[in-house]
Amino acid sequence: MIGQAVNRVDGPLKATGRATYAYEHWEAGQPLYGFIVGATIGKGRITRIDTEDAERAPGVQLVMTYLTTPEQGPRDESIPFEYWRAQPVLTGPDIHYYGEPVALVVAETLEEARSAADLVEVEYRAGRGRFDFGEFEDVYIPKTVNAGLPTDTAVGDFDAGFAGAEVKVDQQYTTPYEFSLPIEPNACMAEPRGEDLVIYVSCQITDAARDSVASTLRMAPERVHILAPFVGGGFGSKLGIHSETILAAFAARTLRRPVKVAMTRQQVFQLVGMRPTSSQRVRLGAGRDGRLSAIAHDVTMHTNPDIEYAEQTAATTRSLYAAPHRLTSHRLTALDLPRGTDVRAPGEAPGMLTVESAMDELADALRMDPVELRIRNEPTVDPERDVPYSDRHLVDCLREGARRFGWENRPATPASVRDGQWLIGYGMSAAIRGHFQGPTAVRVRLETDGTAVIQTDMTDIGTGTYTILTQVGAEGLGLPLERVRIELGRSDHPTSWGSGGSWGATNSCTAVHRACMTLREKLLDTVRDDARSPLHGLDPANAVFSDGNVGTDGASEALGEIVARNHPEGVEAEGRTLFMGDDPNYSAYSINTYGATFAEVGVDADTAEIRLRRMLGVYSVGRVFNPKTARSQLIGGMIWGVGAALEEEAVVDPRSGAFVNRDFAGYLVPVHADIPDVDVVVLEGYDDKANVLGAKGLGEVGICGSGASVANAVFNATGVRVRDFPVTIEKLLPGLPPMDA
Amino acid sequence: MMSASETAVGRSQGEMAPLSAITLNVNDQVRQLQVDPRTSLLDALREHLRLSGTKKGCDHGQCGACTVLINGRRVNSCLTLAVMHENDAIVTIEGLGDPGHLHPMQRAFVERDGFQCGYCTPGQICSAVGMLAEVEAGWPSHVTADVATPGIALTDNEIRERMSGNICRCAAYPNIVAAIRGSAEGGPG
């Protein structure tokens, strides 16, 4: 079953509108509706807040402000990850960023709540905020960057290595604020049940959501029950919970009724956090043969002053190419903007966009094929950690991709090939992403009817968890797929690390596999000692589990019969996956996924309109659980790369700190018309150092480098290098060759 | 600090918004409801009729997740008021098929993996059904090369252009195009 292109098991529910997301649960009856009122200044203080008119408005049940919110638990920085910490909201009169919640209005209907929200009168004393990243040069050095990675690294003597290089690239790039923007806006319904709270919330990690709600509301964690059976996309923005959840929970406890709150699309841009903007200096020094002697990647980013977030933008540069002399660094500038947060492929996405652009610049300076340049700098060991790679196939990806794409047809000289009005260019990029492993537990229970139930608090945010856990469970117990049932997204189930960081599939599948193996042993122990079983006394070493039966030496018995006879309540086992820090393979090896993307663009010679014509990604990700869902995730990642290269950018109003383009008309994401044929090839693989199943995560490697392949294709088409992402018409047009007469 | 119950609860004695009694025909069922005249068709479907298959992604006509079919034409249900649709035949994703009896377009989306998180999916599917009818009726699009000749070839570019009002942030676009093409050609997807 593992490795088969099975259709999504939850597909029919999703395709018929029967999958229920956070805002859509009616089990508790008619809820009340909450609407968030946001600050209309970016920095300052509330001097007066008058809720009287709002409270008297039709249908209104409650107006919460900082004056009326119950006492909240503080953010506890001793908890290692932000997403498990308390998330207090409406904490006081001070305004820290534009749009920050200043009130919640709860009413009988959504229309009443929204209308009454306009009646909350707030007066402010505006302070002088720091909003414009380009304006400030004061930086500080964070203790670590995201995921606890080192802030700076140095190997060899970069200055000497760079000074002595025959060919150099030294360029400054900038990347914009970007948002995750799943199509389901952040939403929560909170239902009081006795002393407990049942929370339906769109989140990626239910364990984090439970801890966060409990500590903010000063409740015992076991009194909070998170339910997230379906999540309408996350991409990092739902790793933690947000203000709508805390506000719904407080309102529900106060009113003793279910309350639901969803952010408007505009509020999502203000209240959830974004990928920080960055300024990145990339220096590459090489010999005329293309071999790198020196690599430096220095990154400066914005952070919120109160909740530090340092994206690990230079981290992948540490493992990608060989070079004896190396430097990486991360610096932060505090701005009065919403906090930075994880957006799909944090660090890798903006970091590889620039480094893989710089590699293209180096190839151009050397007059060398960009594929060949990368092959020449293939390391034998991880150059900064000095440990072997577990299963590195970057060169295979590069070669296979070049062959399939027809890379030999690439215009050797930029701006040299035209197809009618279109300037044609090819571009490519390498991809690498670290593979992570986190503590995860699942429970597998075999029922007396021979069906299996798999329970974990793991989520399926569109990644295919329901499907691949079904496949691994079916293979583990020798059951047909339809006899495996998956229960996800309940914090009362065994605890996982949730969905994020591309670790969800391997963490949970490995745990399911282990639980199934334990369950097999239990069943075999049972029948060996059971005189009523046809397998009594036979050698379990030869046992085969298939089609709902276990058999050995010509005898066979249905699993359901064994369970019914010996375990009338069903029989279960737990399986676990270790934290990577406790798994010696993760310190002894550099465990990563790899890829190569290739893109062809056309650039309108007169208007500089950029059209992606085709795209190919070749990936090495170990073993694949399901080629169909894997391909979908990789395509999705590659298209995110297209968005980063050509479209996505949130713009701050330097006067107010507001994001001016806070909707889908102003913040462009790829749509159907932007995306042509996208092809994906996954190389056969098995990484025996990653886990017992040989699989690695692939939710984010697709976005790594893919944007650079598009930007590099634009350069190849036009001869114009845009280093201020995204590459848009107004930046490209001035450098285009003169218009035809 | 005062508690919320002391200051803010139970003071909702203001005048109720006048409700409108309306009759909607949704998925061939006549449904009578009392709605605030400000209620969008989308909120009437989701919050009053509890047909939550129709999704709210932006409430602004920019994402397409709320697409339904009204008298056979696709409409962003967030941009129209419920009270405007008394005599209309409304079809939502629930009306196209159910998990045991999938509409051919729903089956094609499942077969081609035309979604991941599933949240934009009902809108994509309703939009695709409406879009094929528009092509069938000969409505040209921005990318139709020849608007004079009857009969529009359903190229991939036609599908992409006509489906661009439906955003998929999981970016299942190539699979969605394949599903629509498969369904239009009468295959299993």
UniProtKB/TrEMBL annotation, chain A:
Any one Pfam family match given in the protein's UniProt record, by short name: Ald_Xan_dh_C
List the SMART domains.
Answer: Ald_Xan_dh_C
Describe the location of the Aldehyde oxidase/xanthine dehydrogenase a/b hammerhead domain by residue ranges: 16-128
An annotated Gene Ontology molecular function: oxidoreductase activity
Q: Which domain of life is it from?
A: Bacteria
Protein name per the record: Xanthine dehydrogenase family protein molybdopterin-binding subunit
